[in-house]
Amino acid sequence: AAAGILCYVGAYVFITYDDYDHFFEDVYTLIPAVIIIAVGALLFLIGLIGCCATVRESYCGLTTFVVILLLVFMTEVAVVVLGYVYRAKVEDEVNTSIMKVYDEYNGTNSNAQSRAIDYVQRQLQCCGIHNFSDWQHTRWYEESKNNSVPISCCKIAGCTGSLTHPEDLYQEGCEALVVKKLQEIMMYVIWTALTFATIQMLGMLCACVVLCRRSRDPAYELLITGGTI
């Protein structure tokens, strides 16, 4: 179950980041998501080893289970650290690239930047970088010469994006909302890694308890050394 949830969270991060990938250039931002998917896949195998070792009361199997869980635990701690590092870098990444993305907008579906901006403005209910007036400084606005912003800025039906009716447009800029959204996504990874790191710690403790009980059982010691009771 833990493996499935970890893989789901990692996939969710990939899918969501794909909608915002034009607003950051550092591909390493996705490293925590890659690690958490790999950990999820590995955790499924580890769980099978742990179950088999516990049922068979295998000393070697339980020891292997504890060692591997410890390695996974350390990996998840690394995910938490990387998550915090990249969460802090998101704002700088967006600030650096968002102006360039808006300047490449041409209003057609064939243009990736146009699709990304229209999607963000509709989903986050925002317009422009800081507010809708930012569109007046873009190449698309200068070329269109119709004193309007994209339809994706409209908050009501029947709006044409005309700047003569600013009350029909979203008032908040997209930059701060994109940063907030990406940081929230990274926090999902951080909290998921922390939660399952705690669960794995309990798993290691339980396995250690079983190992200690087996090692203190005289009958078990005779059995593994080839003696008779």
UniProtKB/TrEMBL annotation:
Cellular compartments per GO CC: plasma membrane
The subcellular localization recorded is: Membrane
- SUPFAM superfamilies per UniProt: Tetraspanin (SSF48652)
In the bilayer, the protein is annotated as: Multi-pass membrane protein
Kindly list the cysteine pairs connected by disulfide bridges: 126-159
Q: Which InterPro entries match?
A: Tetraspanin/Peripherin, Tetraspanin_animals, Tetraspanin_CS, Tetraspanin_EC2_sf
Alphabetic keyword roster: Disulfide bond, Glycoprotein, Membrane, Transmembrane, Transmembrane helix
User: Is this entry keyworded Disulfide bond?
Assistant: yes
Report TM segments: 30-55, 62-86, 185-212
Q: Which Gene3D superfamilies does this chain map to?
A: Tetraspanin
Q: Assembly and partners? A: Interacts with claudin-11/CLDN11 and integrins.
Spell out the family assignment given in the record's similarity comment.
Answer: Belongs to the tetraspanin (TM4SF) family.
Say what the protein does: Regulates the proliferation and migration of oligodendrocytes, a process essential for normal myelination and repair.
Q: What is this protein called?
A: Tetraspanin
The species this protein was found in:
Gambusia affinis
